[in-house]
Amino acid sequence: MFVISINGIKNKILIFALLATLIPSVGLGLLSFWHSETMIADNVMHQLRTLVEDTRRELEYWLKERRDGVRALADADAVINGLLAATGSTSSNAGTGEQVLPQYLRLVQERLDAFLVLTVVDAAGQVVASSGEDSTPVQLPEVWSQDASAIDRQVLQRLRTQDDAPLHYEGHMHAEVLGLAASPETFPVMIVAERDRAEVYREWMLFRNLFLALVGGLALLVGMIGWLFGRSIVTPLRRLTRAAERIAAGKLDVELAVARRDEVGQLTQVFNQMAGKLRDSHEKIEAASLALRQQNRQLEKLSITDNLTGLYNRNKLDEILSEQLRRFRRSQKPFSLLMLDIDHFKQLNDTHGHLAGDQVLVGVAKTLAESIRSVDYAARYGGEEFIIVLPETNMSTARELAERICTRVRDSLYPYRDQALAVTLSIGVADIRSSDDDADAIIARADRVMYEAKEAGRNRVCCVA
Length: 465
Fold this sequence. Notes:
Layout: H1 9-74, H2 77-86, H3 94-111, E1 119-121, E2 127-130, H4 153-161, E3 167-170, E4 176-182, E5 191-196, H5 197-200, H6 202-248, H7 263-304, H8 314-331, E6 335-342, H9 345-352, H10 354-371, E7 377-382, E8 385-391, H11 395-410, E9 414-416, E10 419-421, E11 425-431, H12 439-455, E12 460-463
Parallel strand pairs: 11-12
Antiparallel strand pairs: 1-2, 3-4, 4-5, 6-8, 6-11, 7-8, 9-10
């Protein structure tokens, strides 16, 4: 089933336009039809009443003048004998009656000057005798013999009682008619005057059909105009809706073309301004968010790195060792640890100053960071001590790396002002064991062998046996 929704603006405009057109048009049309029908009824009433009254007066006068003559005519022997001859009767006077009947009709016509021609016809319409020369058969109605009694008795009764308005009924010719009746006072007959209803209302029905066609065409035209007006409003609103949906989805690169100078155009301009401000605000927010993320990363880096060397600090080192220990217990993947200490670092500070010592710390830290893998971790443990964590590395591999670092630091010179400073490292190597309860155990073993390296003459690597 087709249903028109009234939720949309376009449908509301269309329905309003149709109602605004149809209600007054139909109302005025109905009022006009009612007035026209009333006037037609009054006019028909006047015509029928006039016709009935004139007919009644003429009939009374005519009957008064012609009653005896008509009675004599109807009872005349010439008429009776002529009719008998026409029906083939074997009466002795039949032949004479058939010849005398036309002459008799002519004599009667001369006496009754109100009649032009007197003709006697049979049931088939064939002329039996006539006062004129024309013997053309008469075209009789198919139901002419019932015409006199075609009006229903109930209709006749209503005609007798209703004299203030024409009565609508089926007439004696079996057609819809408007009729009015009256009875003369001198004799018991009823005069019925009829008019064909279709003929009476022909112009009224033609006007009605024209009015309906006009209203239909006007409704169609107004509906089309309303649809176009609604479309001109709804189309840009839909564009605004789609643009707003894109903005809600995070796509702020929206700008609508302003093609109108009405309220919708002003709304489009305001929408574009709003979208522009949202873009500016979004860019500012993005810039602030980027700066905040950078600051957060910087803060995070500062929280886990040593300010001087850039290596991981002690707190981050503890997290790394705890994670490696959990991993070892979970999957039995080993890791090794290097404990590194700069030889004679206190003497270097006393001789060249703490700034020189800081410069050496930075240089050594850089060497360590460049010597390890991307999966390894280098941290400043404290003072001139460093720790390197080597995931999934056994003791022999860790020793080889420690030897390379020791050699590389020994062969490096670290500039400070106009001097080139040289240092060496003592390195202790240890690996994780199943008996270690925490990370401090592996650190303690690496620290112990590192001091063994110092006692053995420094600038060397010692491993846990």
